[in-house]
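Appendix B, record 7
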Amino acid sequence: MTTIQLIGAPTDIGAGSRGASMGPEALRVAGLIEMLKAHQLNVIDSGNLAGPTNPWLPPVEGYRHLEEVAAWNQSLHEASYAALQQGHLPIILGGDHCLGIGSISAVARYCREKGKDLRVLWLDAHADFNTSELTPTGNIHGMPVAVLCGYGPKQLTRIGGRTPAINPDVVHQIGIRSVDEGEKRFVHQVGLEVFDMRYIDEYGMREAMERALAGMTENTHLHVSFDVDFLDPSIAPGVATTVPGGPTYREAQLCMEMIADTGRMASLDIMEVNPAYDVKNQTALLAVDLVDSLFGKSTLMRDSK
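Structure tokens (predicted):
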């Protein structure tokens, strides 16, 4: 029986708005644990990590709360890596998306040690490939993919013991629709694979996912980093950085079902649920519904292959 380990990271330390720190509890209230147990999964809830409080200060040399962000991500790295070492499937309950640094650096370290091929699906409205030179806000939740690829301060890029933690070619981004001008050039420069909403509009979610998932083998460790602002804000208002024009409910379900069909997902982030912006916890409830599909729920009746 697969063992799921929930790791809460209740912080908005890397964000430009407060409230994502309440995300882990919102997901628990929305029935995440009960849903996972209904799939006959063994669930360990490790509770929440502790870390520095949010000082809510302006950027220093291009970064907001750098030392605090580093502390949270180091703790998350260690907790995620320990879960993987025990053979568990870690689910990180965010928290803002700067936490992808700690989570994915741990998965990358584990894959290096086990000789596994890492693939990261980044489901998000934003490419999160900024640097301090490219963004005036200094909010580190807009930088995690760049940091993981080795672009950023050493306090963050060295988490996990190797810089860069990953190469850009392992990342496949889905649903992107908000990218800063300088960031856009940088994404092209490093060759990040992005299936933006224009691509999904033209070719459909099915083709985007088929391409993003192509070439995986028995040796692939698939990590899904799910930022709930990936979804259209009409169905997921509970995020601080809403961007209109995201995937519909059915497009999002198809995305999750196709990931489930691979049988390769071995770690998961659920990030940026922000109850301060939500209505009756509907965004956390939708996130749990979509994660249900990630673990095999389908709206269709099909013959098993």
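Remarks on this record: The two ends are 21 Å apart (CA to CA). Residues 3-294 form a domain with the Arginase; Chain A fold (CATH 3.40.800.10).
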